[in-house]
Amino acid sequence: MGGDRLGMRWGLAGGTTIATVEQARRVARYADAAGFDGLWISHATGVDPVVALACVADDIPNLGEVGTSVTPLYGRHPIALAQLARTAQSALGGRFTLGIGAASRGAVATTMGLAWEHPLEFTREFIDGLQPLLAGRPVDLDGTQLSAHVELGIEAPDTPILLAALGPRMLELAGRRVAGTSVGQCGPRTIGSYIAPTIRAAAEAAGRPAPRIMALVRICVTDEPSAAFALAQATATRYRQVPSYRAVQDREGLADPAELHLIGSWERVLDGLAAYGGAGATDLRLEVAAPDEASREATREALAAHLG
Question: Which residues contact 124 (CB under 8 A, 6 or more apart)?
């Protein structure tokens, strides 16, 4: 049995810069050996996380869950994403969770050249098309933005969905329709006062189980915090370019949103993580945000020592 989980599942965030399946395998083997409950690979410009996680299935016998956080929906279709996810689930034997999100206006318009029109309705219709297929059932959908009429011939367990949500209507959709949410740039105050009450009320009104709330937390164990804090400031500044992230950063009420990173001794980091459990988070997605190899290794070793 590993160390105190503080009432939450501990997942490792594999990061956004995984360039090869072999790199994904090394991250996965570390998560498995260190005693994490799960592994989450982000969707960015590196390897496709669904494919990469399917490739490392045999390397992670001890991980109870792996997933994406998050696969953007714009530029995709429910049939194609369900086929991809269900194929991965067949390799992972029921351990795969699909994290999805609408992305942002800037990312959709700039990266893909697509119109950002009615994202809430688009996400709702995408889920309408996706959920039956993930469960092995046919879909018969005629929406205003999406249609799908097919049954997939893939044998695999059902795949749960986490919906990235920061706005109140998207949080309500997550509570009503899927297993929970995955959030970033949200500290304990924001989770406790806004995220958790909103999504839980929606789930209760829909007669659904209490939703999962997975919080991305960046950490660095170090005796010299200045470089790690500078990295945190650069990260926070990048996220502030997206209005939804800026709003939740401001809601936290910190002097500097870089303070969302937990930096310093392992004891200080652990106290910071405990606050997330007290605020209502059910899951941690922990990213090692270190400015150098020494602090990166110190953080990984502290995590392994605690969990192992």
Answer: 173, 177
For the chain, residues with pLDDT lower than 70 are 1
Q: How far is CA 118 from CA 102, 123, 138, 145, 170, in A?
A: 10, 9, 26, 9, 12
Judge if the upstream peptide bond of residue 242 is cis by omega within 30 degrees of 0. Answer: no
Over residues 84-141, the pLDDT tens digits come to 999 999 999 999 999 999 988 888 888 889 888 899 999 999 999 999 999 999 999 9
CA distance 267 to 260: 16
Task: Compute the C-alpha angle 171/8/209, nearest 5°.
Answer: 45
CA distances (Å), origin 121, targets 45, 169, 186, 271: 26, 10, 24, 39
Q: Which two tokens stand for residue 216?
A: 């991305």
CA–CA distance, 11 with 40 (Å, rounded to integer):
7
According to DSSP, the β-strands at 283-288 and 212-221 are parallel
Using the structure block, give the residue that is written with the tokens 């189980």. Answer: 209
Q: Are 147 and 124 in contact (CB under 8 A)?
A: no
H, E, C per residue of 161-199: EEECCCCHHHHHHHHHHCCEEEECCCCHHHHHHHHHHHH
In the chain, what is the straight-line distance between the N-terminal and C-terminal CA atoms, in Å?
7
Are 101 and 150 in contact by the 8 Å Cβ rule? The answer is no
Instruction: Please tell me whether residue 261 adopts helix, strand or coil conformation.
Output: coil
- Rounded to 5 degrees, what angle do the CA atoms 245, 259, 284 make? 70
Output the pTM of the full model.
0.97
pLDDT of residue 106: 83
Which pLDDT value is given to residue 15? 87
At residue 41, the pLDDT reads: 97
Per-residue tokens: 121: 């309705």
Report yes or no: 91 and 78 within 8 Å, Cβ to Cβ. no
Rg of the chain over all Cα atoms, to the nearest angstrom: 19
